[in-house]
Amino acid sequence: MIYYIALGSNLPERQEHINRAIQVLSALGTVKGKSGLFESDPYGPQQQPPYLNQICILETEIRPFRLLGYLKAAECLLGRKRSYRWGPRLIDLDIIEWNGEEIDSEILKIPHPGFEQRLFVLLPLQEVDVSFTNRQGLTIDRLIGNCPDKGRILLLDKK
Predict the structure, then answer these.
(1) Which residues have C-beta within 8 Å of that of residue 89, sequence separation ≥ 6?
(2) Which of 3, 45, 96, 144 ranks highest by number of CB atoms within 10 Å?
(3) CA 80-54-24 angle, 5° bins
(4) How much is the mean pLDDT over the chain?
């Protein structure tokens, strides 16, 4: 199975947290690609540091609900402490999409709700997979063109 995983961090040592998370993902399967590192303004409450964002493509035999459990355990292992919604994060790992059926449960939704409204997801996604299309057949270029998010986002480090 192929998964698109979003990684984000906005607490000190952001790049190190992202790098450690990629190592954890590598233990779950094969990281087939990863975007460069993008810096963006926080989504939601603005009184927090900017985020570092990346998308990786993970190939694994792990089913979605089990993968979600591994990702949440990895966040804890890497030091994440839950605060308030859209609050600062040491590390955040989200399943954005996968090459299976749509999932809509209380604990897991794939595709990830709202990913098409967030440039900090779409721009790294475009970099890692220029041929990405959503479930309605819209290309990544079209999704970016339609995106209402006009927040600041900078490419800091190319893949």
Answers:
(1) 8, 9, 10, 11, 51, 80
(2) 3
(3) 50
(4) 93
> Is 149 one of the catalytic residues?
no
**Other CB atoms within 10 Å distance of the CB of residue 159:** 14
What is the per-residue pLDDT across 45-79, written as a single tens digit (0 to 9) for each? 668 899 999 999 999 999 999 999 999 999 988 87
Using a cut of 0.90, tell me whether the model's pTM lies above it: yes
Residue where the block lists tokens 């997979």: 129
> Which of 21-25, 89-93, 143-147 has the lowest average pLDDT?
89-93
Superfamily of segment(s) 2-157: 7,8-Dihydro-6-hydroxymethylpterin-pyrophosphokinase HPPK (3.30.70.560)
Catalytic residue among 89, 118, 129, 149: 89
As given in the structure block, the two tokens for residue 94 are 């989200």
- What pLDDT score does 81 carry? 72
Cα within 13 Å of Cα(73), Cβ side: 9
80 is a catalytic site residue: yes
